[in-house]
Write a structure and sequence with these properties.
The protein is mostly beta strands. The chain has no helices and eleven strands. The strands form two sheets. Strands 2, 4, 5, 6, 9, 10 and 11 form a seven-stranded mixed β-sheet that branches. β9 and β10 form a beta hairpin.
């Protein structure tokens, strides 16, 4: 029932910007914590940012000051604005939903590729 669909990935030059979006369905969105993760080649999947139902945010140190996570409860979407992109940001970015903020993080999107060239 729960579905997450990411969009907005692509190829950009270093220093450029991208905005990722994730549309959620099948859950009570305004009670869910949402997160963005990424996985680079031969690396483990890592947390990029998350936002609670109440709007509290957390960021990984390597994106703090460059990326911004936000949500629109009226549209059941969460976005990741990425500025000052670096080649090391190249990865597949995944949307994740933690239903009712219980810490299970059971639901994942299919991912969207972000490639940053030097």
């Amino acid at each position: 029932q729960v579905q997450l669909v990411e969009s907005g990935g692509g190829l950009v030059q270093a220093g450029g910007s991208l905005r990722l979006s994730c549309a959620a369905s099948g859950s009570i969105f305004n009670r869910d914590t949402m997160g963005w993760y990424r996985q680079a080649p031969e690396k483990e999947r890592e947390l990029v940012a998350r936002i609670t139902a109440g709007g509290s945010t957390n960021y990984a140190d390597f994106v703090k000051g460059r990326f911004t996570i936000s949500r629109d409860n009226a549209k059941n979407t969460v976005a990741l604005q990425m500025n000052s992109l670096k080649p090391e940001d190249t990865a597949v970015y995944y949307c994740n939903l933690d239903q009712a903020g219980l810490g299970l993080w059971n639901y994942w999107g299919q991912g969207t590729q972000v490639t940053v060239s030097s």
